[in-house]
């Protein structure tokens, strides 16, 4: 249970599904693990509860009455950053891509194993807590500072045209603010911390998502990187900042000597 107590407070999770049996299953297991829970059975209610209660994480079904899960995710993302795990009976690549492109942090398909859902919840909450810890950002910054000759006490990472403010969780390209989700920012920060070094998808899943089991999750990295490129690259087809090393992984281009 100590994994849940970074801030010594029980985390609150909003469960959104139109199937009462699914909500009962998830709520039972979440409460058993020590979480507080909120429930919504349609998209409109989900948005209202999320904006009012500001839960620590949201489990969101795709197929919902009144407002579909994709629209719910987009609407919540517009207002505030919170880990969103989409759950759906749809298992096509397109469905996953659309869900992740709308801002979801991960995509879990039905029927799911409750242990897998709990593991992903804990991993996402853990990462969400860590990025708010001063020592976490300071350690990352100092590593980059040594590599890129930045000031050791700075909370700014600068690599080429890319600038990351770790305290504000804000990214800029050529001085212009880029609107990234927390997960997108974390991916970019991890890569920028080691400019020019290729990072595998598996390593990103482990370090950014906190997953030790990569089965079915590799595509999550590709979609997230693709989403980041949409926001930071002038020409996505010819990226200059975030590069793919085919068959290996990704890297952020380092400063030229």
Description:
- This protein has 257 residues and is α/β, with parallel strands linked by helices.
- The protein has nine helices and twelve strands.
- The longest helix is centred in the middle third of the chain and has 17 residues, at 114-130.
- Residues 1-8 and 143-153 have low confidence and may be disordered.
The total count of strands amounts to 12
Q: Element order, helices and strands? A: EHEHEHEHEHHEEEEHEHHEE
Query: What number is the mean pLDDT?
Result: 81
Which stretches of 5+ consecutive residues score pLDDT under 50? 1-8, 143-153
Largest sheet: 5 strands, parallel
Classification by helices and strands: alpha/beta
* Overall radius of gyration: 18 Å
**Strands in their spatial order, largest beta sheet:** 2-1-3-4-5
First and last CA, distance: 48 Å
Strand portion: 15-25%
Percent of residues in helices comes to 40-55%
């Amino acid at each position: 249970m100590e994994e849940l107590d970074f801030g010594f407070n029980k985390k609150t999770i909003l469960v959104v599904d139109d199937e009462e049996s699914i909500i009962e299953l998830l709520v039972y297991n979440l409460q058993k693990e020590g979480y507080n829970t909120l429930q919504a059975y349609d998209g409109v209610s989900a948005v209202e509860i999320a904006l009012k209660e500001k839960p620590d994480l949201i489990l969101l079904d795709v197929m919902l009455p009144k407002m579909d899960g994709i629209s719910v995710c987009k609407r919540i993302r517009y207002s505030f950053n919170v880990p969103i795990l989409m759950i759906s009976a749809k298992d096509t690549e397109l469905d996953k891509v659309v869900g992740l492109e709308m801002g979801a942090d991960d995509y879990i398909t039905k029927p799911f194993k409750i242990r897998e859902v709990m593991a992903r919840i804990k991993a996402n909450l853990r990462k969400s807590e860590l990025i708010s810890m001063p020592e976490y950002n300071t350690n990352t910054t100092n590593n980059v500072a040594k590599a890129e000759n930045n000031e050791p006490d700075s909370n700014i990472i600068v690599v080429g045209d890319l600038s990351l403010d770790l305290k504000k969780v804000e990214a800029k390209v050529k001085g212009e603010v880029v609107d990234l989700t927390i997960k997108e920012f974390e991916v970019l920060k991890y890569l920028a911390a080691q400019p020019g070094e290729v990072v595998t998808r598996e390593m990103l899943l482990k370090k950014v998502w906190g997953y030790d089991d990569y089965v079915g999750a590799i595509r999550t990295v590709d979609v997230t990187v693709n989403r980041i490129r949409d926001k930071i690259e002038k020409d996505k087809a010819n990226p200059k900042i975030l590069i793919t090393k085919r068959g290996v992984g990704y890297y952020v281009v380092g400063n030229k000597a």
